[in-house]
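INPUT
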Amino acid sequence: EVQLVESGGGLVQPGRSLRLSCAASGFTFDDFAMHWVRQAPGKGLEWVSGISWNSLNIDYADSVKGRFTISRDNAKNSLYLQLNSLRPEDTALYYCAKNFGYQLDSWGQGTLVTVSS
Amino acid sequence: DIVLTQSPGTLSLSPGERATLSCRPSQSVTSRYLAWYQQIPGQAPKLLIYGASTRATGIPDRFSGSGSGTDFTLTINRLEPEDFAVYYCQHYHLSRYTFGQGTKLEIK
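OUTPUT
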């Protein structure tokens, strides 16, 4: 059974940083691209960033480009998202999701990031 | 960028009825890149349909997807109580994902 468990969220002041982690199990992690998707409170889904299986292809939403950095450690079956220069509008539940073709077939339960002074 | 517009915003129906949800991309898209998700409040999204019409593993056959180009539909036959949730369509393009704003299916 595929399991994705996010961690690292919390309350942080504007301008500060946070690092999110996603621990994967139940599948061959280094066979799949991985993504981060976020959901602001009461709002819809917003794709944030994606990384290929070998980390050679990385992309970001325009709203986070230059501030967030995605990475992965295939030896540890883990995905990461470094969030810098955080803004109140980055407040959201951040999901880790497994790529399958042209869609996301498995999602974690999310980790909540709150940016507030 | 392609914008996905979902309608209606909210759909009020009773168990046993049929739900028809619409997703309209701002320009023509390849069906292969169109998917649907269900999100029950407090839970993560779940993949329902991919390639516009293929059910994901374990999804009941009362869920079906159709459409092409700029007009896609998710149909849910014989609504069950657990089907009342928010539904999102999604498009893939050049390693990026775009989601519609969602349709809330509520019990009438």
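end of record. Residues 10 and 113 of chain A are 5 Å apart (CA to CA).
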